[in-house]
Amino acid sequence: MIRIMPNPPTSRDVARLAGVSQATVSYALTGRGTISAATRARVLQVAESVGYRPNLAARSMRTRRTGRLAVVSGPTLDHQLRVLAGAGEVATAAGYAVETRTVDGDVEERTARVRELAAAGQHEGVLTLVPVLADVLTDLGAAVADRAGESVVVAEATFDEHMRSAGDLADAGPVAVFVETLLAAGHRRFLHVAGPDQYVSARARRDAYLAAIDRAAADPATADVVSLGVVGGTWSPEDARLAVQALPDDAPPLAVVAANDLLAAGVLRGAAERGWSAPGDVVVTGWDAAAMGAYLTPSLTTVDVDFTEAGRRAMRRLVAAVRGEPAPRQDAAVQRIVWRESTGPLTVA
Amino acid sequence: MIRIMPNPPTSRDVARLAGVSQATVSYALTGRGTISAATRARVLQVAESVGYRPNLAARSMRTRRTGRLAVVSGPTLDHQLRVLAGAGEVATAAGYAVETRTVDGDVEERTARVRELAAAGQHEGVLTLVPVLADVLTDLGAAVADRAGESVVVAEATFDEHMRSAGDLADAGPVAVFVETLLAAGHRRFLHVAGPDQYVSARARRDAYLAAIDRAAADPATADVVSLGVVGGTWSPEDARLAVQALPDDAPPLAVVAANDLLAAGVLRGAAERGWSAPGDVVVTGWDAAAMGAYLTPSLTTVDVDFTEAGRRAMRRLVAAVRGEPAPRQDAAVQRIVWRESTGPLTVA
DNA sequence: CTGAAAGCGCTTACAG
DNA sequence: CTGAAAGCGCTTACAG
Question: Which residues form the HTH lacI-type domain (chains A, B) (predicted)?
Answer without folding.
Answer: 9-63
